Amino acid sequence: MRTLFRRRHATAHLRARQTLSFARGRGVTLRCLEGVCWVTREGDERDHVLRPGDSFRSDSPGRIVVWAVTDARLRIEPPGGEPLLAVPETAFLPSSLPEA
Predict the structure, then answer these.
(1) Are 43 and 25 in contact (CB under 8 A)?
(2) Angle at CA 49, nearest 5°, toward 22 and 88?
(3) How many CA atoms lie within 13 A of 77 on its CB side?
(4) Nearest CA to 14 among 35, 41, 43?
(5) How many CB atoms lie within 10 A of CB 100?
(6) CA gap 50, 4 in Å, rounded
(7) CB distance 11 to 74 below 8 Å
(8) Which of 24, 34, 80, 97 could in theory staple to 73 by disulfide, Cβ–Cβ 3.0 to 4.6 A?
(9) Rg (CA), the chain
(10) Does the global pTM surpass 0.70?
(11) Torsions phi, psi of 80, nearest 5?
């Protein structure tokens, strides 16, 4: 299933262990409203853990994958209000989990 966000922002509700992937991540801002999410970005050796109040902005064009450690709610802000393609993916279990 593909979702095309045409508004300045969208809110995603993720269940624990659900993932969401953005094919082109440059300029995307993710704001954690509830829960805990693990964010990984193509070409970045660092992972990022978002808790309520935290945000992440991608400055590189690669894929972004968000994995919900717990049930979570994210505000997704596309760059410059442009439409954003987001693809929900099959849940996966990373080899190591951040602490919730």
Answers:
(1) no
(2) 30
(3) 11
(4) 35
(5) 10
(6) 23
(7) yes
(8) 34
(9) 12
(10) yes
(11) 60, 20
Q: What CATH class has 3-86?
A: mainly beta
Side chain identity, residue 59: D
61 token code pair: 């064009």
Q: What is the DSSP letter of 6?
A: -
Distance, in Å, from the CA atom of 3 to the CA atom of 48, rounded to the nearest integer, reads 24
What whole-number distance in Å separates Cα of residue 76 and Cα of residue 44? 20
What are the tens digits of pLDDT across the range 28-84?
899 999 999 999 998 888 999 999 999 999 888 888 999 999 999 999 888 775 655
3-state SS assignment for residue 97: coil
Do 6 and 83 meet the contact criterion of CB atoms below 8 Å apart? yes
